[in-house]
Amino acid sequence: MLSLFFHFKFRVVRQKDSAAPRGGRGLALRRQHQGRPPLASPHLTSPHPQLHHRLTAATPHSRRRHGRLAMSSGGTKSTSSPPPPSPSSSLWLAPNPSKRWGELFFLFYTPFWLTLALGIVVPYKLYESFTELEYLLLGLVSAVPAFLIPMVVVGQVCLLTFLMDLHASLWIIIFSYVGNYFWTHYFFTVLGASYTFPSWKMNNVPHTTFLLTHVCFLFYHVTSNMTLRRLRHAIADLPEKVRWVTEAAWILALSYFIAYLETLAISNFPYYEFVDRASMYTVGSLFYAIYFIVSFPMFLRIDEKPGSPWDLPRVAVDALGAAMLVTIILDLWRIFLGPIVPVPNSKQCIQPGLPWFPGHSVEA
Asked: Of all helices (H) and strands (E), which one includes residue 206?
């Protein structure tokens, strides 16, 4: 009976260890004959991972012990996790989803007001019958939807997206307001420009230009944002000084191109006049480009970094700072370089003070 019992036990052990290597099976048999429990350690029974899994998965305790051992062994899985995916796969659009939505909206809104102003009113000369009211309505129809649509459509769904659209609009409102209220007088005294269409005015500047400038500048600055992002990705591996020079050269070129393009686009509107259009296209466009040389890199910074949102006071202060810097540069041009063409009372251009003070203004 005793021999039959050991013979039966020997067959059971052989069946259990049939997948194990020879050395591991012999060790299990010896421990079984000695009345000792078999070893569950994979280092003593088998180096194969399949057998290791079978042995350690026998009990919950062994599974927990194996898990602690694997965590403490410093495996490559736990230390070499792939980097998180980028929020934006595009090299042109903002990494911040809310800012990206706003930029795309302003970009796709541009054909509406551009077609209305330069595709309908100017080519068909509808302005010939316009009074002060029609000019004001043209500005309102062009500019107000750019502010209201994000408020109505997006503001009810995503407050963060609406706030980022509001940041962009507020920055441009402040910057373009300063540009119209103050810098337009540099166009009068330095570039020899004048407005002759009927309009209600503030500080001798038509209200319509305040409104149209807002949507124009939104389009310009969104375009600048996209090109600057693409450029930064393209030159990311270059030395820092080379990147800085390349970006500065691009901002200068883009600013001049946009200023020149706007001057050329409104050349068919006869009631925005210049003493010398050729000089305005070449030198005057460089003067106008000063606006964007300052504003393009500063506008890009708004809500650009995910997780670092701006608030309205910061947006307002940033826009006012950019406007002040442009004002200083324009006035230095007025004092040291003077007008680009002979204008009435041109001697007043180099007088102390500012061009919108009494005695400096040229009637538009």
From this structure: strand 205-206
What pTM was computed for the model? 0.73
CA distance 344 to 50: 95
Per-residue pLDDT of 61-85, as tens digits, reads 444 444 443 444 444 443 444 344 4
88 DSSP 8-state letter:
-
Burial of 107 (0-12, 13-18, 19+ CB in 10 A): middle
* Pair of tokens at residue 358: 């009494």
177 closest CA partner among 302, 319, 313 = 319
On whether both 34 and 125 belong to a single domain, the answer is no
- Same domain assignment for residues 336 and 282: yes
Distance CA 232, CA 132 (A): 45
Total domains in the chain come to: 2
pLDDT over 70 at 318, yes or no = yes
CA gap 363, 193 in Å, rounded:
10
Spatial distance between the Cα atoms of 292 and 301, rounded to a whole number of angstroms: 14
d(CA 231, CA 251): 10
Residues 266 and 194 in one domain: yes
DSSP, collapsed to helix, strand or coil, labels residue 188 as: helix
Angstrom CA distances, 235 to 81, 238, 305, stand at 28, 5, 19
